[in-house]
Structures are given as C-alpha cells and as structure tokens.
User: What shape does this take?
Amino acid sequence: MKAPDVDDDKFKTLIHYVVWHSRDVAGIRETDLYKVLWLAEAHRFVHTGRPIAGTQYVRGTSGPEPRTGRAARDELVDTNKIACWQDDRAEPAVVRLHAVCAPDTAALDSDELAEVNHWIGRIARPDEAGGTTTTPDRAWQLAELGAPLPFTAVLADRVRAEMPPEDRAWAERRAKELNLP
Assistant: This one.
C-alpha cells in the first residue's frame, strides 16, 4: 500500500486546533497532543482509507510521536500561534503548549473536525467526555523505540480484545451456516 501524501500545512493546523481546543489553562501536555493527533489520524485512515494530514508517526518514549511534530510545533511558536514551555512542576518535567490565537480551520472538513474533537474529548479533556488520559495502544507497546507506526496499527487492540458472548455466538452460527470449521 502506498504511503499517504503528507500535507504539512494541514498538520500544523491540526496541532494548532488541538492545542486551542484542549482548554487546559495550564496548557496541553505535548504527549497528550501527540496521542490526540495519532488516534485521530489513524482512526480516520482506518474508517476512510485516508488520514487527515498523513504525517508519519513513530514510537516515542511516552507514546506515538509525529516525525515532524517538533518542527511543526516550533514553526507555530515562531509565528506566535502557540506558546511552548517546560513545566518543571510535573515529575518528570513535561512540555506544555497553549494557543495564543484561534486556529484557521478552513483546511479541515467537518468529518475531520469531528474525529479530532472525539479524541480531544477522550485524551485532552477526559473529565468532560468520560474518557481517559491513558491510551493502552498495543501497537505502540510492541514497536521498538523510533520504529514507524503505520495507521493500521491501531487495529492491534481490536485483535486482542475479547469478543462479547453474543458476538461469538453470532460468529459461530454464521460459520456453521457457511460450513466453516
């Protein structure tokens, strides 16, 4: 399968949008930003065959990281769209981001925004959406540090998930109808 085309401007818009909508006065943690981006891009790819911006992700020390994440972040800081600082109050210290101005979302369609908003709620604002700040992503756990994470890697969790009894019963009935072992 051909790697998706990368849209660097759209990727910077995604970063700015997530930072703006995280609504954390203390600023969103960079690792949470990257989790939101990874999950939104990967799930969009799985559902439509096309990611949002097509940025390549790798296994970082604390989760998935976009290869061009820091360069894009630094450009947004240089253009005064977001602020970035080291928060030494956390243990270990974390990088935090805060939006200086609202993002221009013209490059994102309504379905892309809905996908991103879903993951912002689950990762960056878990109290509002009943989500969690942790993402036990099986693909990330299995990959070596720095290894590329294909968007389809998010399906690894589905393979390991236990099938509900009613789904298993349906699958067994259907297999029998089709004369499968």
User: Anything to note?
Assistant: The mean pLDDT is 84.
